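Whiteboard transcription, Tuesday session. T.W. wrote the structure tokens on the left side:
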């Protein structure tokens, strides 16, 4: 064994930036018999949630990797992958040695590895002191996804949303594109993302003036992913009792779910700037949430979405990069977005509505403001039909809409917009 050329490879702990290379290695070596009972997805999840893993590099290139997952005092080696050209040079033993060092630190007492019968890495394992248990057969049953966590979902008041909420979002092209690229796609395609070294986000925050579509976006993300949607309402969670304890219980139930989008609206109510008074109730709740987020982040298939109208009221520690991957402003809709919204509302009128006039008149209107104005116009047209006793009248006209717009005050006052752009400058993280 060994080669006459010096084998200057290096074994070290796995780092986040190794992800793409390790996934590539697992991908390319699986057909060569170096496979595992753990799926590629499970292995990626272990890597992105910082389960113990080691790599061996040569000239900066990853040529081998080993990863494990720990449950209690037992660790399962999930996968050992070695570049075929580097087989038989003691890499497997070296990787196992590095991995074991970390496992022992985590108080693991038993290390197990299940291999296919003809696994070519067996020698490396024996050299590293592993004993083959004979007369063991591996059985498994794949649970249908819907069954796991059904109880927890019900307890949390969660549900699966209609599948078209994402496509029904009108306009907001910039926000939609950002969320689609950075949030939805890495979660929907975790293996492809991992191959490119992209760790999927686990938590995002949306901020902006009221009625701009934060709740709508959160629901649309769940719909787009096909994951159940759970909204945690601080007012209902607390129920007069201890909000911190209720949050803890809710997050414990969330941990039972395979996949979920968790939404906390008006998060400033629970994560407001800490006033420095240790005994205050809000302080304890902020701390509780700060403690719960890291554990929540350790699992794939989860996304926490927090929304706030008042990002500057949040505790600065709350939005730290390690907790929230993106802090995304959702502002009043631009002209294209307003046009799509007006077109949607005016769809029920038989008039040809002058959309560009409505778009121009509704600058600064939020989606909710536009919805409100459209409702006033529709009501006007409806009343006209009732009083004329003519059900053949054509619905709201451009004039009805413009009159309604003139009656409404946009949510986004100049002051509010100024504050919002300051907030974008200080808080947004894209
Ligand atoms: N992009 C959008 N397209 C169509 N309707 C929207 C859009 N964004 C928001 N709305 C509508 O505007 C209203 C307010 O939106 P919401 O998500 O509740 O705002 P926020 O949570 O920011 O206060 C809702 O009725 C929603 O359906
Ligand atoms: Mg909302």
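and on the right, the sequence the group agreed on:
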């Amino acid at each position: 064994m060994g080669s006459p050329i010096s084998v200057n490879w290096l074994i070290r702990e796995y780092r986040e930036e190794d992800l793409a290379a390790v996934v590539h290695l697992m991908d390319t070596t699986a057909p060569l018999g170096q496979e595992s009972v753990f799926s590629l997805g499970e292995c990626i999840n272990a890597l992105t949630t910082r389960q113990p893993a080691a790599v061996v590099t040569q000239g900066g290139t990853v040529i081998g990797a080993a990863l494990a997952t720990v449950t209690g005092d037992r660790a399962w080696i999930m996968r050992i992958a070695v570049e075929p050209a580097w087989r038989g040079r003691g890499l497997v033993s070296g990787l196992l040695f590095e991995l074991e060092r970390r496992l022992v630190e985590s108080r693991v007492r038993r290390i197990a590895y299940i291999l296919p019968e003809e696994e070519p890495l067996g020698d490396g394992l024996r050299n590293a002191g592993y004993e083959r248990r004979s007369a063991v057969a591996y059985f498994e049953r794949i649970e249908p996804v819907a069954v796991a966590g059904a109880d927890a979902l019900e307890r949390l008041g969660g549900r699966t949303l209609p599948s078209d909420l994402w496509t029904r979002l009108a306009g907001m092209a910039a926000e939609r594109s950002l969320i689609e690229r950075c949030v939805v796609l890495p979660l929907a395609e975790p293996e492809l993302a991992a191959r490119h070294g992209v760790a999927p986000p686990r938590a995002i925050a949306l901020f902006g003036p009221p009625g701009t579509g934060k709740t709508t976006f959160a629901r649309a993300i769940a719909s787009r992913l096909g994951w159940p949607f759970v909204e945690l309402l601080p007012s209902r969670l607390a129920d007069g009792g201890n909000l911190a304890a209720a949050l803890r219980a809710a997050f414990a139930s969330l941990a039972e779910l395979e996949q979920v989008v968790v939404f906390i609206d008006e998060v400033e109510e629970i994560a407001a700037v800490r006033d420095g008074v240790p005994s205050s109730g809000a302080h304890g709740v902020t701390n509780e949430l700060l403690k719960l987020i890291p554990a929540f982040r350790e699992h794939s298939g989860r996304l926490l979405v927090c929304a706030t109208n008042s990002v500057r009221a949040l505790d600065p520690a709350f939005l730290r990069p390690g907790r929230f991957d993106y802090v995304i402003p959702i502002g009043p809709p631009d002209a294209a977005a307003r046009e799509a919204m007006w077109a949607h509302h005016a769809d029920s009128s038989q008039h040809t509505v002058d959309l560009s006039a409505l778009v121009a008149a509704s600058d600064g209107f939020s989606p909710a403001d536009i919805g409100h104005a459209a409702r006033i116009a529709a009501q006007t047209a409806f009343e006209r039909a009732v009083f004329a006793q003519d059900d053949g009248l054509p619905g709201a006209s451009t004039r009805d809409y413009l009159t309604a717009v003139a009656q409404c005050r946009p949510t986004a006052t100049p002051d509010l917009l100024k504050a919002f752009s300051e907030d974008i400058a200080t808080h947004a993280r894209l």
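Someone added at the bottom: The CA atoms of residues 4 and 219 lie 61 Å apart.
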